[in-house]
Design brief:
Elements: E1 2-7, E2 13-17, H1 22-31, E3 39-42, H2 48-59, E4 63-67, E5 72-76, E6 84-85, H3 87-90, H4 100-107, E7 109-113, H5 126-134, E8 138-142, E9 145-149, E10 158-160, H6 166-176, E11 182-186, H7 192-203, E12 207-209, E13 215-219, E14 228-230, H8 235-247, E15 251-255, H9 263-272, E16 275-278, E17 282-286, E18 296-297, H10 309-317, E19 322-326, H11 336-342, E20 346-350, E21 353-357, E22 366-368, H12 372-384, E23 388-392, H13 395-398, H14 404-410, E24 414-419
Parallel strand pairs: 2-15, 3-14, 6-7, 10-11, 18-19, 22-23
Antiparallel strand pairs: 1-23, 1-24, 3-5, 4-5, 7-9, 8-9, 11-13, 12-13, 15-17, 16-17, 19-21, 20-21
Helix pairs in contact: 1-2, 1-7, 4-6, 5-6, 6-7, 8-10, 8-12, 10-12
This protein binds uridine-diphosphate-2(N-acetylglucosaminyl) butyric acid.
Uridine-diphosphate-2(N-acetylglucosaminyl) butyric acid (EPU) is lined by residues 23, 26, 95, 121, 123-128, 163, 165-168, 189, 306-307, 329-330, 372-373, 400.
Length: 420
Protein backbone atom coordinates (compact mmCIF):
# COMPACT_ATOMS: atom_id res chain seq x y z
CA UNK A 1 0.00 0.00 0.00
CA UNK A 2 1.25 3.46 -0.89
CA UNK A 3 1.64 6.40 1.45
CA UNK A 4 2.51 10.06 1.12
CA UNK A 5 5.31 11.70 3.08
CA UNK A 6 4.48 15.38 3.37
CA UNK A 7 7.12 17.83 4.63
CA UNK A 8 6.49 21.27 5.98
CA UNK A 9 6.57 23.40 2.85
CA UNK A 10 6.72 27.15 2.40
CA UNK A 11 3.92 29.15 0.85
CA UNK A 12 2.47 27.39 -2.20
CA UNK A 13 2.72 29.66 -5.20
CA UNK A 14 1.73 29.26 -8.85
CA UNK A 15 -1.06 28.35 -11.22
CA UNK A 16 -3.02 25.14 -11.40
CA UNK A 17 -5.53 23.88 -13.94
CA UNK A 18 -8.48 21.91 -12.63
CA UNK A 19 -9.53 18.68 -14.38
CA UNK A 20 -12.99 17.20 -14.89
CA UNK A 21 -15.22 16.50 -11.90
CA UNK A 22 -15.26 12.95 -10.57
CA UNK A 23 -18.78 13.33 -9.25
CA UNK A 24 -19.96 14.37 -12.69
CA UNK A 25 -18.02 12.02 -14.91
CA UNK A 26 -19.15 8.88 -13.06
CA UNK A 27 -22.79 9.81 -13.72
CA UNK A 28 -22.11 10.73 -17.35
CA UNK A 29 -20.57 7.29 -17.81
CA UNK A 30 -23.61 5.63 -16.20
CA UNK A 31 -25.91 7.71 -18.42
CA UNK A 32 -24.16 6.40 -21.55
CA UNK A 33 -25.94 3.09 -20.90
CA UNK A 34 -29.10 4.83 -22.12
CA UNK A 35 -27.77 5.68 -25.59
CA UNK A 36 -28.35 3.62 -28.72
CA UNK A 37 -25.10 4.94 -30.25
CA UNK A 38 -21.58 5.61 -28.95
CA UNK A 39 -21.06 8.47 -26.49
CA UNK A 40 -17.87 10.45 -26.04
CA UNK A 41 -17.04 12.06 -22.72
CA UNK A 42 -14.23 14.60 -22.55
CA UNK A 43 -12.17 15.88 -19.60
CA UNK A 44 -12.18 12.52 -17.86
CA UNK A 45 -9.74 12.59 -14.93
CA UNK A 46 -7.47 9.60 -14.31
CA UNK A 47 -8.94 8.25 -11.09
CA UNK A 48 -9.49 4.91 -9.40
CA UNK A 49 -13.25 5.53 -9.37
CA UNK A 50 -13.26 6.06 -13.14
CA UNK A 51 -11.47 2.70 -13.57
CA UNK A 52 -14.15 1.04 -11.40
CA UNK A 53 -16.94 2.56 -13.50
CA UNK A 54 -15.21 1.29 -16.66
CA UNK A 55 -15.09 -2.23 -15.15
CA UNK A 56 -18.78 -1.96 -14.33
CA UNK A 57 -19.84 -0.79 -17.79
CA UNK A 58 -17.78 -3.60 -19.32
CA UNK A 59 -19.38 -6.12 -16.96
CA UNK A 60 -22.76 -4.92 -18.25
CA UNK A 61 -21.63 -5.59 -21.83
CA UNK A 62 -20.68 -2.09 -23.01
CA UNK A 63 -17.31 -1.42 -24.62
CA UNK A 64 -15.22 1.40 -23.20
CA UNK A 65 -12.23 3.00 -24.93
CA UNK A 66 -10.31 5.21 -22.53
CA UNK A 67 -7.66 7.46 -24.03
CA UNK A 68 -5.94 8.58 -20.83
CA UNK A 69 -3.65 11.04 -22.55
CA UNK A 70 -6.53 12.78 -24.29
CA UNK A 71 -8.67 12.43 -21.13
CA UNK A 72 -11.44 11.03 -23.28
CA UNK A 73 -13.75 8.06 -22.96
CA UNK A 74 -15.83 6.53 -25.71
CA UNK A 75 -18.64 4.26 -24.56
CA UNK A 76 -19.99 1.88 -27.17
CA UNK A 77 -23.43 0.33 -26.58
CA UNK A 78 -23.65 -3.32 -25.62
CA UNK A 79 -24.74 -5.89 -28.19
CA UNK A 80 -26.53 -7.57 -25.31
CA UNK A 81 -26.91 -5.37 -22.26
CA UNK A 82 -26.78 -7.34 -19.01
CA UNK A 83 -29.16 -6.08 -16.36
CA UNK A 84 -27.20 -7.32 -13.34
CA UNK A 85 -24.47 -5.27 -11.64
CA UNK A 86 -22.29 -7.61 -9.55
CA UNK A 87 -21.32 -7.24 -5.89
CA UNK A 88 -17.56 -7.37 -6.61
CA UNK A 89 -17.78 -4.06 -8.44
CA UNK A 90 -20.59 -2.28 -6.56
CA UNK A 91 -18.84 -2.80 -3.21
CA UNK A 92 -15.76 -0.96 -4.52
CA UNK A 93 -17.65 2.26 -5.14
CA UNK A 94 -21.08 3.45 -4.01
CA UNK A 95 -21.55 5.61 -7.11
CA UNK A 96 -21.87 2.42 -9.17
CA UNK A 97 -25.44 2.21 -7.86
CA UNK A 98 -26.14 4.98 -10.37
CA UNK A 99 -26.38 2.38 -13.16
CA UNK A 100 -29.70 1.23 -11.73
CA UNK A 101 -31.80 4.08 -13.21
CA UNK A 102 -30.35 3.75 -16.73
CA UNK A 103 -30.64 -0.08 -16.70
CA UNK A 104 -34.25 0.11 -15.55
CA UNK A 105 -35.06 2.65 -18.27
CA UNK A 106 -33.37 0.70 -21.02
CA UNK A 107 -33.97 -2.96 -20.05
CA UNK A 108 -37.12 -2.56 -17.91
CA UNK A 109 -35.26 -4.61 -15.32
CA UNK A 110 -32.21 -3.96 -13.18
CA UNK A 111 -30.58 -6.08 -10.51
CA UNK A 112 -27.89 -4.31 -8.55
CA UNK A 113 -25.98 -5.43 -5.48
CA UNK A 114 -26.95 -3.39 -2.41
CA UNK A 115 -24.30 -0.78 -1.70
CA UNK A 116 -22.95 -1.07 1.85
CA UNK A 117 -22.30 1.66 4.39
CA UNK A 118 -19.11 3.66 4.16
CA UNK A 119 -16.73 5.72 6.21
CA UNK A 120 -18.93 8.79 6.17
CA UNK A 121 -22.19 7.15 7.24
CA UNK A 122 -24.82 4.54 6.50
CA UNK A 123 -25.96 6.30 3.30
CA UNK A 124 -29.29 4.61 2.61
CA UNK A 125 -30.81 4.42 -0.88
CA UNK A 126 -34.47 4.61 0.12
CA UNK A 127 -35.06 7.78 -1.89
CA UNK A 128 -33.73 6.19 -5.09
CA UNK A 129 -36.02 3.20 -4.59
CA UNK A 130 -39.10 5.30 -3.77
CA UNK A 131 -38.49 7.17 -6.99
CA UNK A 132 -38.30 3.97 -9.06
CA UNK A 133 -41.50 2.72 -7.39
CA UNK A 134 -43.29 6.00 -8.12
CA UNK A 135 -42.36 5.48 -11.79
CA UNK A 136 -44.13 2.12 -11.64
CA UNK A 137 -41.25 -0.27 -10.99
CA UNK A 138 -41.70 -3.18 -8.66
CA UNK A 139 -38.76 -3.19 -6.27
CA UNK A 140 -37.70 -6.28 -4.35
CA UNK A 141 -34.77 -6.84 -2.01
CA UNK A 142 -33.18 -10.20 -1.33
CA UNK A 143 -29.84 -12.00 -1.01
CA UNK A 144 -28.00 -8.65 -0.94
CA UNK A 145 -29.45 -7.54 -4.26
CA UNK A 146 -32.09 -5.01 -5.24
CA UNK A 147 -34.22 -5.80 -8.23
CA UNK A 148 -36.43 -3.25 -9.94
CA UNK A 149 -38.60 -4.21 -12.86
CA UNK A 150 -41.59 -3.18 -14.88
CA UNK A 151 -43.47 -5.35 -17.35
CA UNK A 152 -45.09 -2.49 -19.22
CA UNK A 153 -42.47 0.26 -18.98
CA UNK A 154 -41.99 3.18 -16.58
CA UNK A 155 -44.64 5.88 -16.39
CA UNK A 156 -43.94 9.52 -15.44
CA UNK A 157 -44.97 10.60 -11.94
CA UNK A 158 -44.62 13.36 -9.35
CA UNK A 159 -41.87 12.54 -6.90
CA UNK A 160 -41.05 14.56 -3.79
CA UNK A 161 -37.66 13.86 -2.25
CA UNK A 162 -37.60 14.11 1.56
CA UNK A 163 -34.00 15.31 1.25
CA UNK A 164 -32.38 16.78 -1.90
CA UNK A 165 -30.19 13.72 -2.43
CA UNK A 166 -27.70 14.09 -5.26
CA UNK A 167 -27.67 10.40 -6.14
CA UNK A 168 -31.45 9.93 -5.93
CA UNK A 169 -32.06 12.98 -8.13
CA UNK A 170 -29.62 11.62 -10.72
CA UNK A 171 -30.88 8.04 -10.66
CA UNK A 172 -34.54 9.10 -10.96
CA UNK A 173 -33.76 11.67 -13.65
CA UNK A 174 -32.03 8.99 -15.75
CA UNK A 175 -34.79 6.42 -15.16
CA UNK A 176 -37.42 8.98 -16.22
CA UNK A 177 -35.79 9.89 -19.56
CA UNK A 178 -37.66 7.17 -21.41
CA UNK A 179 -40.75 6.87 -19.16
CA UNK A 180 -44.17 7.51 -20.65
CA UNK A 181 -45.26 11.11 -20.01
CA UNK A 182 -43.90 13.66 -17.57
CA UNK A 183 -41.94 13.11 -14.36
CA UNK A 184 -41.62 15.95 -11.88
CA UNK A 185 -38.90 15.67 -9.22
CA UNK A 186 -39.57 18.07 -6.37
CA UNK A 187 -37.01 19.09 -3.74
CA UNK A 188 -34.42 17.92 -6.24
CA UNK A 189 -30.70 18.39 -5.57
CA UNK A 190 -29.28 21.49 -7.29
CA UNK A 191 -25.58 20.59 -7.47
CA UNK A 192 -23.69 21.63 -10.64
CA UNK A 193 -23.13 17.92 -11.35
CA UNK A 194 -26.92 17.50 -11.70
CA UNK A 195 -26.97 20.26 -14.32
CA UNK A 196 -24.04 18.65 -16.14
CA UNK A 197 -25.86 15.31 -16.25
CA UNK A 198 -29.10 16.94 -17.43
CA UNK A 199 -27.19 18.74 -20.21
CA UNK A 200 -25.64 15.45 -21.32
CA UNK A 201 -29.04 13.71 -21.30
CA UNK A 202 -30.52 16.55 -23.37
CA UNK A 203 -27.62 16.30 -25.83
CA UNK A 204 -28.60 12.62 -26.14
CA UNK A 205 -32.13 13.69 -27.08
CA UNK A 206 -33.79 13.63 -23.65
CA UNK A 207 -36.14 16.37 -22.51
CA UNK A 208 -35.03 17.46 -19.02
CA UNK A 209 -35.92 20.95 -17.78
CA UNK A 210 -35.23 22.77 -14.54
CA UNK A 211 -31.97 21.06 -13.50
CA UNK A 212 -30.19 23.37 -11.05
CA UNK A 213 -33.53 24.35 -9.47
CA UNK A 214 -35.51 22.35 -6.93
CA UNK A 215 -38.06 21.21 -9.54
CA UNK A 216 -36.89 19.06 -12.43
CA UNK A 217 -39.31 18.08 -15.20
CA UNK A 218 -38.50 15.15 -17.45
CA UNK A 219 -40.67 14.49 -20.48
CA UNK A 220 -40.11 10.92 -21.60
CA UNK A 221 -38.79 10.23 -25.12
CA UNK A 222 -38.70 6.95 -27.07
CA UNK A 223 -34.96 6.60 -27.43
CA UNK A 224 -31.68 8.34 -26.72
CA UNK A 225 -28.85 8.87 -29.22
CA UNK A 226 -25.12 9.12 -28.77
CA UNK A 227 -23.60 12.46 -27.76
CA UNK A 228 -20.30 14.16 -27.10
CA UNK A 229 -19.91 16.06 -23.85
CA UNK A 230 -17.25 17.89 -21.87
CA UNK A 231 -17.28 17.26 -18.11
CA UNK A 232 -17.46 20.31 -15.84
CA UNK A 233 -14.37 21.14 -13.75
CA UNK A 234 -14.05 19.59 -10.30
CA UNK A 235 -15.25 22.20 -7.80
CA UNK A 236 -14.08 20.20 -4.80
CA UNK A 237 -10.52 19.87 -6.06
CA UNK A 238 -10.60 23.60 -6.76
CA UNK A 239 -11.86 24.20 -3.20
CA UNK A 240 -9.07 21.99 -1.81
CA UNK A 241 -6.36 24.04 -3.54
CA UNK A 242 -8.06 27.30 -2.54
CA UNK A 243 -7.76 26.18 1.07
CA UNK A 244 -4.12 25.18 0.44
CA UNK A 245 -3.33 28.75 -0.66
CA UNK A 246 -4.87 30.28 2.46
CA UNK A 247 -3.36 27.66 4.77
CA UNK A 248 0.23 27.99 3.51
CA UNK A 249 -0.05 31.79 3.16
CA UNK A 250 0.61 31.24 -0.51
CA UNK A 251 -0.65 32.71 -3.74
CA UNK A 252 -2.40 30.24 -6.05
CA UNK A 253 -4.33 30.98 -9.21
CA UNK A 254 -6.78 28.25 -10.02
CA UNK A 255 -7.65 27.95 -13.71
CA UNK A 256 -10.51 26.12 -15.39
CA UNK A 257 -12.89 26.50 -12.46
CA UNK A 258 -16.44 27.77 -12.62
CA UNK A 259 -16.14 30.37 -9.89
CA UNK A 260 -19.88 30.43 -9.19
CA UNK A 261 -19.65 26.70 -8.28
CA UNK A 262 -17.34 27.45 -5.33
CA UNK A 263 -19.05 30.61 -4.04
CA UNK A 264 -19.67 29.31 -0.50
CA UNK A 265 -16.00 28.33 -0.20
CA UNK A 266 -14.88 31.71 -1.54
CA UNK A 267 -17.16 33.48 0.94
CA UNK A 268 -15.80 31.54 3.92
CA UNK A 269 -12.19 32.03 2.82
CA UNK A 270 -12.82 35.77 2.69
CA UNK A 271 -14.24 35.63 6.22
CA UNK A 272 -11.13 33.81 7.38
CA UNK A 273 -9.12 36.70 5.96
CA UNK A 274 -7.77 35.35 2.66
CA UNK A 275 -7.61 37.71 -0.31
CA UNK A 276 -9.58 36.53 -3.31
CA UNK A 277 -9.83 37.74 -6.89
CA UNK A 278 -12.03 35.89 -9.32
CA UNK A 279 -13.34 35.94 -12.85
CA UNK A 280 -15.79 33.53 -14.49
CA UNK A 281 -13.19 30.79 -14.93
CA UNK A 282 -10.33 31.56 -12.54
CA UNK A 283 -9.80 32.23 -8.86
CA UNK A 284 -6.70 33.65 -7.22
CA UNK A 285 -6.35 33.04 -3.49
CA UNK A 286 -3.70 34.73 -1.37
CA UNK A 287 -3.10 33.84 2.26
CA UNK A 288 -2.43 36.32 5.02
CA UNK A 289 -0.42 36.03 8.25
CA UNK A 290 -3.27 35.85 10.75
CA UNK A 291 -6.32 33.78 9.86
CA UNK A 292 -9.56 34.31 11.79
CA UNK A 293 -11.98 31.73 13.22
CA UNK A 294 -15.33 31.31 11.42
CA UNK A 295 -18.41 29.14 11.89
CA UNK A 296 -19.84 27.15 9.04
CA UNK A 297 -22.57 24.60 8.34
CA UNK A 298 -22.46 22.10 5.50
CA UNK A 299 -25.59 22.04 3.37
CA UNK A 300 -26.80 20.81 -0.01
CA UNK A 301 -25.76 23.10 -2.88
CA UNK A 302 -25.63 26.10 -2.97
CA UNK A 303 -24.65 25.76 0.71
CA UNK A 304 -21.14 25.00 1.92
CA UNK A 305 -20.13 21.58 0.47
CA UNK A 306 -19.67 18.67 2.85
CA UNK A 307 -16.87 17.57 0.51
CA UNK A 308 -14.80 20.62 1.53
CA UNK A 309 -15.53 20.34 5.26
CA UNK A 310 -12.43 18.35 6.28
CA UNK A 311 -10.06 20.60 4.29
CA UNK A 312 -11.60 23.71 5.88
CA UNK A 313 -11.31 22.14 9.32
CA UNK A 314 -7.52 21.98 8.91
CA UNK A 315 -7.48 25.68 8.05
CA UNK A 316 -9.59 26.57 11.09
CA UNK A 317 -7.43 24.34 13.31
CA UNK A 318 -4.59 26.86 12.87
CA UNK A 319 -6.73 30.02 12.75
CA UNK A 320 -7.02 32.40 15.70
CA UNK A 321 -10.01 31.78 17.98
CA UNK A 322 -12.81 29.25 18.21
CA UNK A 323 -14.71 28.00 15.15
CA UNK A 324 -17.68 25.67 14.94
CA UNK A 325 -18.32 23.41 11.95
CA UNK A 326 -21.75 21.78 11.80
CA UNK A 327 -22.19 18.83 9.44
CA UNK A 328 -25.77 18.36 8.27
CA UNK A 329 -25.36 16.26 5.12
CA UNK A 330 -23.71 13.09 6.47
CA UNK A 331 -24.17 11.79 10.00
CA UNK A 332 -20.62 10.49 10.47
CA UNK A 333 -18.27 12.75 8.59
CA UNK A 334 -15.92 13.66 11.43
CA UNK A 335 -13.59 10.67 11.44
CA UNK A 336 -10.74 12.96 10.39
CA UNK A 337 -11.02 14.88 13.68
CA UNK A 338 -9.07 12.23 15.60
CA UNK A 339 -6.34 12.26 12.93
CA UNK A 340 -6.02 16.08 12.87
CA UNK A 341 -5.92 16.06 16.69
CA UNK A 342 -3.03 13.57 16.52
CA UNK A 343 -1.16 16.36 14.75
CA UNK A 344 -1.72 18.71 17.71
CA UNK A 345 -5.06 20.31 16.82
CA UNK A 346 -7.66 21.02 19.50
CA UNK A 347 -11.01 19.87 18.10
CA UNK A 348 -13.93 18.45 20.07
CA UNK A 349 -17.00 16.81 18.61
CA UNK A 350 -20.35 17.79 20.10
CA UNK A 351 -23.17 15.99 18.33
CA UNK A 352 -23.17 17.10 14.70
CA UNK A 353 -20.71 19.91 15.37
CA UNK A 354 -16.96 20.15 15.74
CA UNK A 355 -15.67 22.87 18.04
CA UNK A 356 -12.25 23.95 16.87
CA UNK A 357 -9.96 25.89 19.17
CA UNK A 358 -7.23 27.33 16.95
CA UNK A 359 -3.66 26.32 17.85
CA UNK A 360 -0.34 27.97 16.93
CA UNK A 361 0.88 25.07 14.79
CA UNK A 362 0.61 21.37 13.94
CA UNK A 363 3.21 18.60 14.20
CA UNK A 364 3.90 15.90 11.67
CA UNK A 365 3.14 12.31 12.63
CA UNK A 366 1.61 9.16 11.15
CA UNK A 367 -2.04 9.60 10.18
CA UNK A 368 -4.45 7.73 7.97
CA UNK A 369 -6.92 8.88 5.36
CA UNK A 370 -10.35 7.84 6.66
CA UNK A 371 -12.10 8.87 3.45
CA UNK A 372 -11.27 10.70 0.25
CA UNK A 373 -11.69 14.31 1.42
CA UNK A 374 -10.30 13.54 4.88
CA UNK A 375 -7.18 12.23 3.14
CA UNK A 376 -6.78 15.44 1.13
CA UNK A 377 -7.24 17.43 4.34
CA UNK A 378 -4.42 15.51 6.05
CA UNK A 379 -2.10 16.20 3.12
CA UNK A 380 -2.90 19.91 3.52
CA UNK A 381 -2.24 19.66 7.26
CA UNK A 382 1.13 18.08 6.50
CA UNK A 383 2.14 21.10 4.42
CA UNK A 384 2.12 23.34 7.51
CA UNK A 385 3.01 20.82 10.23
CA UNK A 386 6.52 20.74 11.74
CA UNK A 387 8.56 17.82 10.41
CA UNK A 388 7.13 15.03 8.28
CA UNK A 389 3.55 13.84 8.11
CA UNK A 390 3.04 10.28 6.90
CA UNK A 391 -0.39 9.86 5.34
CA UNK A 392 -1.46 6.23 5.07
CA UNK A 393 -4.34 4.54 3.23
CA UNK A 394 -4.04 7.01 0.39
CA UNK A 395 -6.03 4.83 -1.98
CA UNK A 396 -8.93 6.90 -0.68
CA UNK A 397 -7.25 10.05 -2.03
CA UNK A 398 -6.49 8.38 -5.38
CA UNK A 399 -10.21 7.73 -5.81
CA UNK A 400 -10.83 11.44 -6.30
CA UNK A 401 -7.60 13.39 -6.85
CA UNK A 402 -5.56 12.54 -9.95
CA UNK A 403 -2.09 12.50 -8.31
CA UNK A 404 -2.57 15.10 -5.61
CA UNK A 405 1.19 15.22 -4.95
CA UNK A 406 1.97 16.16 -8.56
CA UNK A 407 -0.39 19.16 -8.38
CA UNK A 408 0.89 20.34 -5.02
CA UNK A 409 4.57 19.78 -5.88
CA UNK A 410 4.14 21.99 -8.94
CA UNK A 411 3.16 24.72 -6.49
CA UNK A 412 6.24 24.14 -4.31
CA UNK A 413 5.09 21.43 -1.87
CA UNK A 414 7.53 18.79 -0.65
CA UNK A 415 5.76 15.46 -0.97
CA UNK A 416 7.02 11.97 -1.72
CA UNK A 417 4.87 8.99 -2.63
CA UNK A 418 6.24 5.76 -1.20
CA UNK A 419 5.03 2.41 -2.49
CA UNK A 420 5.29 -0.01 0.41
N1 LIG B 1 -29.72 9.83 1.73
C1 LIG B 1 -30.79 9.12 2.21
N2 LIG B 1 -31.49 8.32 1.36
C2 LIG B 1 -31.16 8.19 0.05
C3 LIG B 1 -30.06 8.92 -0.46
C4 LIG B 1 -29.35 9.74 0.41
O1 LIG B 1 -31.11 9.21 3.40
O2 LIG B 1 -31.83 7.44 -0.68
C5 LIG B 1 -28.94 10.66 2.65
C6 LIG B 1 -27.49 10.16 2.77
O3 LIG B 1 -27.38 9.13 3.73
C7 LIG B 1 -26.75 11.41 3.17
C8 LIG B 1 -27.52 12.50 2.45
O4 LIG B 1 -28.78 11.95 2.09
O5 LIG B 1 -26.83 11.61 4.56
C9 LIG B 1 -26.83 13.02 1.21
O6 LIG B 1 -26.63 12.00 0.29
P1 LIG B 1 -26.64 12.23 -1.28
O7 LIG B 1 -27.49 11.19 -1.89
O8 LIG B 1 -26.92 13.66 -1.58
O9 LIG B 1 -25.12 11.96 -1.63
P2 LIG B 1 -24.54 10.92 -2.68
O10 LIG B 1 -25.23 11.06 -3.98
O11 LIG B 1 -24.44 9.59 -2.06
C10 LIG B 1 -22.80 12.63 -3.62
C11 LIG B 1 -21.31 12.67 -3.81
C12 LIG B 1 -20.64 12.82 -2.46
C13 LIG B 1 -21.13 14.11 -1.83
C14 LIG B 1 -22.67 14.09 -1.71
C15 LIG B 1 -23.26 15.36 -1.15
C16 LIG B 1 -20.95 11.31 -5.74
C17 LIG B 1 -20.41 10.06 -6.32
N3 LIG B 1 -20.88 11.43 -4.44
O12 LIG B 1 -23.07 11.50 -2.81
O13 LIG B 1 -19.24 12.94 -2.72
O14 LIG B 1 -20.57 14.24 -0.55
O15 LIG B 1 -23.25 13.85 -3.00
O16 LIG B 1 -22.88 16.45 -1.92
O17 LIG B 1 -21.43 12.17 -6.45
C18 LIG B 1 -16.96 12.70 -2.31
O18 LIG B 1 -16.76 13.04 -3.50
O19 LIG B 1 -16.03 12.65 -1.46
C19 LIG B 1 -18.33 12.38 -1.88
C20 LIG B 1 -18.59 11.67 -0.79
Amino acid sequence: MSKLLVEKSGPLVGRIRIKGAKNSVLKLMAASILADDPCTIESVPELLDVEVMIQLLEALGLKVDYNREAEMIKVIPAETLTCEAPYEIIQKMRASFLVMGPLLAKKKIAKVSMPGGCDIGARPIDLHLKGFQALGAEVTLGHGYIEAKTETGLVGAEIYLDFPSVGATENIMMAATMAKGQTVIQNAAKEPEIVDLANFLNEMGANVRGAGTDTIRVNGVDKLNGARHQTIPDRIIAATYMVAAALTKGDITIENVVSSHVKPVTAKLKEVGAIIEDGDDFIRVRGVDALKAVDLTTLPYPGFPTDAQAQFMVLLAVSEGTSVITETVFENRFRHVAEINRMGANIKIEGHSAVIQGVKGLQGTQVKATDLRAGAALVLAGLVAEGVTEVDEIYHIDRGYPQIERDLMALGAKITRVDK
